[in-house]
Amino acid sequence: MLVTAFVIVGLLAGFTGVAIGLYTLRNARAAVEECLDVLARRAAVEGVVDTKAIRDVAVFRYDALEEMTGRMSFSVALINGLGDGIVLTSINGRTETRTYVRALRGGRGLQPLSPEEEQAVRAARLGLGPEVEVADGDLLRPAGGLWSNSAR
To answer: In angstroms, rounded to a whole number, what is the distance separating the alpha carbons of residues 73 and 140?
Structure first.
């Protein structure tokens, strides 16, 4: 009699476990289907997004040397959707030009960045490119167009 009771309890527990497992599997499949539907709708609206492709670009021009005016020096930030990329800087003087490149990971330089390089990275991440300038103080704005009062 005791063995029969254990067998019945064991069978009942087994069937209950299988029923709970099937219920959970059904809910998990429904959640996966819902996520796939959301992703499909998003891809239809935004298109397929490659996070490793360069998508944020900004050029920040400035006068690096007193002897050269006309904002001939520049820093260019080329960044992907993950915040990885490079900043290419060219310092232009009358007799020579120096070019530097610094790597970015997660929107931050792997080496210390100059203030101008920081401005280029910030402008690229904010989507202000392709060319930006300093407006008032430290505020960045797109160069040219309605905001520009200086001849280029």
So the answer is: 17
Residues 81, 49: contact at Cβ < 8 Å?
Answer: yes
Determine the Cα–Cα distance for residues 24 and 9; give it in Å rounded to an integer.
22
Count how many residues are written for the chain: 152
| Cis check: omega of the bond before 130, within 30 degrees of 0 | yes
113-118-122 Cα angle (round to 5): 145
- pTM comes to 0.61
8 A C-beta contact, residue 80 and residue 54 = yes
Which residues fall within 8 angstroms of residue 23, CB to CB, at 6 or more apart? none
pLDDT at 31 over 60: yes
Instruction: Give the whole-angstrom CA distance, residue 145 versus residue 12.
Output: 76
